[in-house]
Amino acid sequence: MDFALFGGVRQPSVFIEVKGVGRAGSGDKQLFEYAFHQGVPICVLTDGREWSFYYPPGEGDYSQRRVQKLHLVERDENQLEETFRRYLQRERVRTGEARDAVDLDFRDLRSRREAQRSIPQAWQSLVGEPEELLVELLQDQTEAISGVRPSSTAVLAFLQSLSLTSSVEQPVAPKAVEASVRPSVPANLVMSSNTNNSSNSGSREVTFELFGETRTTNTAKSALVEILGEIAKRYPDRMLDIAHGARGKSRNHIARSPEEIYPKRPDLARAEEIFDGWLIGTNIANREKLRIIQAACNAVGLTLGKDVVIDFPNA
Description:
Helix content is 42%, strand content 15%.
């Protein structure tokens, strides 16, 4: 072994093997044999320009245990510095923080590979039994392009004709210390008004009138939540009627819990609170947003176009 970093203890913590320029891919087996016999948690293989960081205790072949690959010429200076400090800074090696970091990055990378392998199966599930939302979004986008809204039958036929002939098996190449800075994936319920998803039909501002007052929101989703919230505040005793009128073909759009809103597909749960524990499912197309507002107006005796004036994109 060319270099061993000890971090102040007798047991080596990092092995670094150096190859000639252009030969950085030829030393994996030798490097891992050394690490296996010594129980070293971090290995580095470099030709001076290209640096690969490995986690030997991990599962998989050599490439699957590589948590980071840097090229000194191609990467940003700050990214390079952050990565070298993350894995090789003496104090972090001495305290075990470097080992924890490489372990965390390896597990993160493994999870993302598994998620990537599941994409074809997820897509087949979506097009095999299309959700109402998927059909509506495709209808909306087609109408925006052609000016004519296709029938749901035509969209269903198209989706069911789709098939994937190749699987996604390409390894994920993380950016510098991506695993250390990426926030954890939220649970299947998102309760933040700043969260954007595909049901927003873009991030264009939406202007509307509510009880004679002109308002503007950043997204169609925010407008929906604000309008329903104001109606609920004025008519709190009519929430059951509003929820009943807002029901869709396959789900309750307004309810007390995400499970009630998405009984068949809780994995699609995206919801915002509108009033006193009542939630509105936001994973919906703009056309459905407008229908829900219409239903809320009908339930309390308001007039859409007078008391509430709004024009959603593609609705």
